[in-house]
Amino acid sequence: MTKIYDQTTTGLLLVDFYNDFLAEEGKLYPRTKEVSESVNLLKHLKAIVDEARKSGIRVFYVPHHRSEPDDYDNWLYPNPNQIKSQKSQPFAKGTWGGEFHPDFQPQKGDVIAKEHWGSSGFANTDLDHQLKMHGVQKIIIIGMIANTCIEATARYGSELGYHVTLVKDATSAFSKEAMHAAHEINGPTYAHAIVTTEELLAAL
């Protein structure tokens, strides 16, 4: 790959790096375990974050809303995932599951965007504003999960005019079919680059 990721215009987006997704004891880990382990998810996430920091690429946290039991009680149209999450309470506010995984703690200079309620990290948050204020034009998106928050954030980013890179072995999903749809069917319709971790590291 050509080295297109200049440190002054590139941002690395860490989507939903919570214990409930990434730690073995997390509420949602059992549902992603097969796919996560097949792509060596944690190893690849660490490698990308480490290399981005070494390269001077700014890191942006894109966190999901940390839930409370009555969040959606009076909503007119919560989506199906929000209804399901009200029962299981992943990323519950004030709990271990809703904390960032210990391997990915924010560091000085990182930006933590406002929490997103649905799938997109852009909708109803300050992510676009934060990226623009830091001069970011190209976004590399990694984290959880491929066919929901990663796809929604990446697609929205593309429509806002960002150059979008997906890293297909630095994300996971609840099934192999969902991963295939995210990277082989849907991703090519909006992403400017769909790469492996190895390919990305060579380009940073």
Description of the structure:
InterPro entries: Isochorismatase-like_dom, Isochorismatase-like_hydrls, Isochorismatase-like_sf. This is Isochorismatase family cysteine hydrolase. Its EC number is 3.-.-.-. Belongs to the isochorismatase family. It holds the Pfam family Isochorismatase. With 204 residues, this protein is α/β, with parallel strands linked by helices. It has one domain: Rossmann fold. It has 8 helices and 6 strands. It has helices spanning 19-22, 29-38, 41-55, 80-88, 127-133, 146-159, 176-186, 197-203, and strands spanning 10-15, 58-62, 111-112, 138-143, 163-171, 193-195. A 6-stranded parallel sheet has the order 3-2-1-4-5-6, with helices on both faces. The mean pLDDT is 94.
Provide the fold topology.
Blueprint: E1 10-15, H1 19-22, H2 29-38, H3 41-55, E2 58-62, H4 80-88, E3 111-112, H5 127-133, E4 138-143, H6 146-159, E5 163-171, H7 176-186, E6 193-195, H8 197-203
Parallel strand pairs: 1-2, 1-4, 2-3, 4-5, 5-6
> Structural class of the secondary structure composition?
alpha/beta
The value of Rg in angstroms is 16 Å
For the record, the count of structural domains works out to: 1
Distance between the termini: 10 Å
Q: Could you name the CATH class?
A: Alpha Beta
Reported CATH architecture: 3-Layer(aba) Sandwich
Number of strands: 6
Q: How is the largest sheet built, in terms of strand order?
A: 3-2-1-4-5-6
